[in-house]
Structures are given as C-alpha cells and as structure tokens.
From TrEMBL:
The twin CX3C motif contains 4 conserved Cys residues that form 2 disulfide bonds in the mitochondrial intermembrane space. The keyword Disulfide bond applies. SUPFAM superfamilies: Tim10-like. The keyword Chaperone applies. InterPro entries: Tim10-like, Tim10-like_dom_sf. It holds the Pfam family zf-Tim10_DDP. Belongs to the small Tim family. Residues 13-76 form the Tim10-like domain. It is found in: Mitochondrion inner membrane. This is Mitochondrial import inner membrane translocase subunit. It comes from the Eukaryota. Mitochondrial intermembrane chaperone that participates in the import and insertion of some multi-pass transmembrane proteins into the mitochondrial inner membrane. Also required for the transfer of beta-barrel precursors from the TOM complex to the sorting and assembly machinery (SAM complex) of the outer membrane. Acts as a chaperone-like protein that protects the hydrophobic precursors from aggregation and guide them through the mitochondrial intermembrane space.
C-alpha cells in the first residue's frame, strides 16, 4: 500500500492499523521479556521443564488479562 495515493480517511485508517500493529508487537516483546525473566531461571535446554512451561503460560495469561483490564479502563475514561 503506497501512502502517497491514499485520501484522508484511508490514510487515517492505514495509520491506525500501523499503530495497532506496533502496539501488539510492543506487547509481545514486553510479555516475552517479563515472563522469560520470571520463569526461566536456569540455562534453557532443548525444551522447557514442566514448571517453566506452566509458569510461562500463567505469566502470559495474567499479562493479557491485565492488559485487557487496563485497555477497558482507558476506553471507559473517554
């Protein structure tokens, strides 16, 4: 998609989509960093231990839950 050929409404939609993509990428990076630091306490091998796997899953779920709560809170403020 060439931004120079877009009208105003299309440009705004394009920018909103790009902003959403950036936000998702940032969230995934933060989630990965936070959960990795919390759950992986030893040198990783070829696969995670069952406790590491459970920790990563729980951490990711809690992170997503909190992100949703925060997003809803901000939406209700507008």
């Amino acid at each position: 998609m060439d931004p120079s050929t877009l009208n105003n409404a299309e440009m705004q939609q394009f920018l909103n989509q790009e902003k959403e993509k950036a936000m998702v990428n940032e969230m995934v990076a933060k989630l990965t960093s936070e959960c990795w630091d919390k759950c992986i306490t030893s040198t990783p091998g070829s696969k995670f231990s069952s406790s590491e796997s459970a920790c990563l899953s729980n951490c990711a779920q809690r992170y997503m839950d909190m992100s949703l709560i925060i997003m809803k809170r901000f939406q209700s403020m507008h």
